[in-house]
Design a protein that fits this description.
Oligomer: single chain
Strand content: 15-25%
Helix content: 25-40%
Order of helices and strands: EHEEEHEHHHEHEHEHEHEHEEHEHEEHE
Strand order of the largest sheet: 8-7-6-9-10-11-12
Structural class: alpha/beta
Low-confidence stretches: none
């Protein structure tokens, strides 16, 4: 029985996909697989039994990726599973920032005791007038699963859309509306956009990317939307830009003690993926990733090990080796297993780590597994079949 520990509640529609050979445990220390949403794992002692962690969401800042990789623990995420939920909130954010909907609603609440409210509102409503988004230019930094959906929706709403993503995948490019203009630099996006929305991961080179220098390249009165990560925006520089009017509104799904108290900030309590549909989609994808990895050795959507998919094994045996990405590794594997015919093999690498799967015409014995485990750079050997 494979023991699965849930550090956060995971939607039932996902948990129901666990095979009979899997069972849940409340003890992290004995888990072979972990499902997590927002709980931090950085302070947890990783058990020797742990094979995989699946984050039911896209961001993995709450997981010690390097530590997991060093211990042969594959970390998965669920890219795109919550994309539609975030896309819809981005559109809502643009509308809220364009027109003072909040102010108008608050006026109604403040004046609800007025028996003539239906008349007095006609005089008051001019204070809450705004602008339409049709015909405006939306700039998108990052055209991943969310960015593409936002771009296509904005085009459908009559907006002009420009986007920048040096890592744009073939699949996302194919899914992108032909009305979207792709540019080569963020600076080109900044220069022409009335709205700018960022959809990039938090990395060393993206941290604080919206700052005094980048804001200076933007149009006066620009509206900036951040549904990606809090630290992509320099709070002090944003406060200054809002005060001067350079930035008209800042919409964020990641309020903190500073931004929550700024004028002209529209903040949500991290609601981007907080829909029933998103939570279900993430749970389903996370569970499928865990099961496929443990049962078949396949890696899909890992953030610390390379993608590697050999389907289901129809041979007598299959082994999977997690190892450092160093020269001559494959030749040592094949030498150690020379007495068994290798019918198929796949080797992939990602950064400092590699992953090798071999389908065998005979089952592998314990002595051969020990020989492979003893090879320099090998982290973990798994006998899948």
């Amino acid at each position: 029985m494979i023991k699965v520990n849930c550090l956060n509640p995971i939607a039932k529609v996902g948990m129901s996909l666990l095979p009979d050979t899997f069972g849940t445990t409340g003890e992290f220390s004995e888990a072979e697989a972990v499902l997590v949403r927002s709980a931090s794992m950085h302070e947890l002692e990783l058990p020797d039994s742990l094979l995989a962690v699946a984050r039911a969401g896209a961001g993995t800042n709450n997981i010690p990726l390097d530590k997991c990789a060093e211990n042969g623990i594959v970390v998965f995420n669920t890219p795109g599973a919550n994309a539609n939920g975030v896309k819809e909130l981005v559109i809502a954010g643009m509308l809220l920032a364009s027109r003072d909907i909040r102010g108008g609603m608050q006026w109604v609440s403040d004046n609800k005791a007025d028996e003539s409210i239906n008349k007095t509102m006609e005089k008051a409503k001019s204070k809450f007038a705004g602008t339409e988004i049709k015909g405006k230019t939306l700039g998108i930094i990052g055209l991943g699963a969310i960015g593409v959906l936002v771009a296509n929706a904005a085009c459908s709403l009559g907006m002009k859309v420009v986007g920048c993503d040096p890592y744009l995948s073939v699949q996302n490019a194919l899914n992108l509306s032909n009305e979207v203009t792709i540019v080569k630099s963020n600076a080109e996006v900044y220069a022409v956009s009335d709205f700018i929305t960022i959809h990039v991961p938090l990395l060393d080179d993206t941290k604080g990317m919206i700052n005094k220098a980048s804001i200076s390249m933007m149009k006066d009165g620009v509206i900036i939307l951040n549904y990606a990560r809090d630290l992509l925006v320099n709070d002090n520089d944003m406060a200054e830009a809002l005060e001067s009017g350079k930035v008209r509104k800042y919409v964020t799904d990641f309020p903190n003690a500073k931004t929550a108290n700024m004028n002209n900030v529209i903040a949500f309590p991290h609601l981007g993926a907080s829909t029933e549909e998103s939570e279900d989609n993430c749970a389903v994808m996370a569970v499928k990733e865990i099961v496929d990895y443990i049962e078949n050795g396949n890696i899909k959507n890992s953030v610390n090990y390379p993608a590697c998919d050999m389907g289901k094994c129809n041979k007598a045996g299959r082994i999977a080796v997690l190892h450092k990405n160093v020269p001559n590794t494959i030749s040592q594997f094949t030498s150690a297993i020379a007495h068994i015919n290798i019918s198929d093999m796949t080797n992939k690498s990602k950064g400092n780590y590699g992953y090798t799967m071999m389908d065998l015409d005979d089952k592998i014995d314990n002595d051969t597994v020990a020989k492979i485990q003893a090879i320099n750079g090998v982290i973990k050997v798994r006998v899948i079949k």
